[in-house]
Amino acid sequence: xxxxxxTMHEEEQIVQVKISMSYPLRWVNSYLWRGETGVVIVDPGPxxxxxxxEWRIVWDALSIAPNEITxxxxxxHHPDHYGLAGWMQEQTGAKVWMxxxxxxxxxxxxxxTADINQVLPDFFRSHGMTEKWAxxxxxxxxxxxxxxxxxxxxxxxxxxxxxxxxxxxxxxETAGHAPGHLSFYDPERELILCGDAVLxxxxxxxxxxxxxxxxxxxHFLEGLERMEGLEVRKAFPxxxxxxxxxxxxxxxxxxxxGERLQQxxxxxxxxxxxxxxxxxxxxxxxxxxxxMRFAMAxxxxxxxxxxxxxxxxxxxxxxxxxxxxxxxxxx
Length: 331
Fold this sequence. Notes:
The chain is 38% helix and 23% strand. By secondary structure, the protein is α/β, with parallel strands linked by helices. A hairpin with a 6-residue loop joins strand 9 and strand 10. It contains eleven helices and 14 strands. Helix 10 (275-283) packs across helix 11. The longest helix is centred in the last third of the chain and has 22 residues, at 246-267. It has helices spanning 49-61, 79-82, 85-92, 100-110, 116-126, 131-142, 145-148, 216-227, 246-267, 275-283, 289-308; strands at residues 5-9, 14-20, 27-34, 39-42, 69-73, 95-98, 154-156, 160-164, 167-174, 181-186, 191-195, 234-237, 313-318, 325-330.
């Protein structure tokens, strides 16, 4: 097994730990620091035998006893951030913190009454997804369950002042990438732990899922605007590397989504198209089901934002292959 990598950011007194995850991202950033009363870990990563061992190696290398870990803070509910929280809580007795909205979304995705794994394939079929892809979705969605088991016992973070590990943050809730997503801004050090709200080089996925946030792109863009006024010297994101270009990155992300909306709007000037037809035209089909799910859900987020802005309309058309009536979009 390749040993996990970690970096001490001396000025901020934060350790960045790269925890393994699946391709194409390959690793998720966890962060930790030692406060007066114990160690805080932010976003421990997805659960697997490999990631459990990675944390044992990191704890040993940094001379951290598991019972010294007092707090586990989660930016959002996605498996690559939330997944190990329950296991780590069992190992350490630490408190697990996240927003109430994010916890609701975790229950929506993996709780005892969750039905998203059954609902999502039919939702995508109704928007034109072919059976080649739709039939893969159930097993794909089921594959996340081991990454998030056991569920942690959670305490809620309210928006606003949040103190943990001897540090005072402003907890800022934004949506779009994930309902209830929290970023943690330290005005004294001018740093932000921004999870997946702002990422360098890659655009955070913005997905429309049935039963979840019906306007994710709107809320994502509103979140970027909320974060523009912060004085940030250095941002610590959930993926890739810490960045000093935080403000310019906010502008780049807003421009990217504006361009994508214009691109889709132009595509709809001819005959009505399903979301799947738009998705394939934009992204192709030369990838696996994980990336196709993201591409389809992001396409839907943009198309329904065009509808919300009265730049497109929902209609119906007959799918040529299945002969089913499916949802389509037109100008």
